Amino acid sequence: MRWSGRRESTNVEDQRGRFSMRGGAGIGCGGFLVVLILAWLFGADPQQLLSLLGGLQQSAPTAEDRAAPAGQPQDELGKFAAVVLADTEDTWNRIFSETGGRYEEPKLVLFSRAVASACGYASSASGPFYCPGDHKLYLDLAFFDELDRRFGAPGDFAQAYVIAHEVGHHVQNLLGISDRVRALQERARSEEEVNALSVRLELQADCFAGVWGYTANRDRRLLDPGDVEEGLAAAAAIGDDTLQRRSQGDVTPETWTHGSSEMRAQWFRRGLQTGDPQVCDTFGAR
After folding, report:
1. Which of 42, 46, 237, 272 has a beta carbon 3.0–4.6 Å from 151's, enabling a disulfide?
2. For residue 14, what is the enclosing H or E element?
3. Nearest to 49 by CA among 62, 59, 61, 34
C-alpha cells in the first residue's frame, strides 16, 4: 500500500502501555461460590469464568489509568493505522454526503493486552472489535502479527482490511442496521437463527470494507499490485469454517457467527469490484 506520508486521522486514541498487568489478590471463597452459581445459572464452564475473572483482575485499569491522556501514535504501525482510518473517513464522508447524510467519524482506540470500553472490558484475545455504545473501534496492533503468523495472511492491505471491516460495523450502526438486527435476534426462536443474522451482519461489514478499498484505489491510488490478493486472503483466513477446522477438526455451520472463508472473500470482493454500498445487501441475498 502507498500509505507513507498521507494524512493521519486525528480520531486515534493511543492507549498502549497505559494498563499494566497487576497481580490480583484472588477472588476468595465467597467469590468462588459466586462463580459456581453463575456457571450453574448460565450453563457456563466454571474454569472459563474463573480464567476470565482472573484476567480482568490483572488487567483492569485504575481511575488514574483512565484519566491519562491518549495522544497520537508515533510508531510506524500506529501511524499506518491512523492513515487507514483517515482514508476510510474520506470514503464514507463522501458516500454519506452524496446521499444527503452526514458521516460521524468513529474513534480508533489502540490498546495493549486489555481495554475498557462502553461495551465492557476486553482482552487482546477478543480480537479487534467495534463498540456501538461509544462509537469506537478497538485494536491491539499485536493482532496484525497474529494475522500473519497464525492465520497466514501477511501484508499491509490485509491489516487495512481489518480496520475497514470494523469501520463497516460503525457504518451499520449509523444506518440503523445494527439495531434492526439486534431486534430480530431478540425475537429469534433459536440460537441458529441468531447466528445466521450475525453472519449476514459480518458479511455486510466485509462488503463495506471492500467499498472502501475500491474508492481508496480509484480516487487516491492507495493500492499496490498484490494488495487485493492480500485482502482477500485475510478475509478467507478468518472464516468460521477455516477456524473450526484448525481448532476442532470439523465444521459446524449452525454455530457460525461470521461466515465461511468463501462467503467472506466473496462479499469483500463484491465491494472491491463495485465500490457501491447498495450491492452489500447481505440480508436480501440468498
Report:
1. 237
2. strand 12-14
3. 34
